[in-house]
């Protein structure tokens, strides 16, 4: 990797808006050091692509001010960058649908925070022609995954649809419900959880470690069936197996899962997924979980969906979006209103606070 950084002419960084400014500044220092060049980024050309209407760096227990401070635009390097603006929504454009122009404008209104908000209820009202509203979770599942008991083995069908939710609790509940309807036997994998510092073993018993269900980590008890979609939680073999890759389970063994890649350049390839040790970074103590780095992916979090394109998208917002850009990301995964199915308690969409920050 050092030789690549020394000789490369251009570095392309996609979805850069999700990255902490310290990551950009660390790359700058590394390139200057490796290339022996004191110019910005060691004289290499850096292409950053992203949309600040989408989600910003994830900072646990943060405020909107913390998100802004971590944003790339707050970096001392930002003034050195030349801004080029792309204005066409290609997901919408490629649909060649009569509603394309109006749908693209409505998405921009959400992304720019221009939807009218009722200050007393903190609710915005989405236009009647913006999406299709479902009355229950069961109806949402049926609209996104019709006849799933017969269709789940069709990789092309499975790869083009997903349900999105803001919180992991909703993701887990819907995933469990959908997998229950798949006509095949379940296989359960339990993780091995250990405390890194042996002096603290007595303070954190195994039962407590097993009970932890953390964002970005697989669960202690991972239950899967043949044919179900899963999403990778770690980079294993880039660019083939990266964090966010969606796969379909093909075969399950004691220490290896064979799966088929559902999307991207390597679509259709069969790969082997091992158990790997994972250490969360946002805990007050260090513990290690040895488990397959995957979760069920009928439903995924909105943040995990950023960068993915879908033909059918369900959006469950019984627990509302809680961070900048989440609603915009969720709604913009598809190219036309009829492909977006939503579910919330009221026809007015309620937000916990303003989900758009002026950046």
Automatic annotation (TrEMBL):
EC number: 5.6.2.3
All copies of domain DNA helicase Pif1-like 2B, residue ranges: 207-250
Catalysed reactions, semicolon-separated: ATP + H2O = ADP + phosphate + H(+)
InterPro entries: DNA_helicase_pif1-like_DEAD (IPR010285), P-loop_NTPase (IPR027417), Pif1-like_2B_dom (IPR049163)
UniProt domain DNA helicase Pif1-like DEAD-box helicase: residue ranges: 4-118
Gene Ontology molecular functions: 5'-3' DNA helicase activity; ATP binding; hydrolase activity
Keyword flag Nucleotide-binding: yes
GO biological process: DNA recombination; DNA repair; telomere maintenance
SUPFAM superfamilies for the chain: P-loop containing nucleoside triphosphate hydrolases (SSF52540)
Keywords, sorted A to Z: ATP-binding, DNA damage, DNA recombination, DNA repair, Helicase, Hydrolase, Nucleotide-binding
Protein name, UniProt field: ATP-dependent DNA helicase
Species in which this protein is naturally found: Trichonephila clavipes
Gene: evm_012926
